[in-house]
């Protein structure tokens, strides 16, 4: 397979992952975790194993235990994904500046 085809497949898979992330909502704010800016990075290796680097709105977030598991399960449900792991970081800490314009509009910050 050519490198261009690999890049296209990786891009398509990346879009599928983002679409799944947009179906997962923070329980305290009625906005999905992607638009909230909780997802810092998504890595996909050549074996289609996914690593998601994310944060939470606060270290005391009530879903700190369950949200990463939900994300892993939903991302693993994508046919092309062979495995998924979520890593939580608080560096840099989440702020409202990380939210998309859409999210800010949704909760009345704009």
UniProtKB/TrEMBL annotation:
Gene3D superfamilies: Fe-S cluster assembly (FSCA). Residues 15-84 form the MIP18 family-like domain. This is FeS assembly SUF system protein. It comes from Maribacter vaceletii.
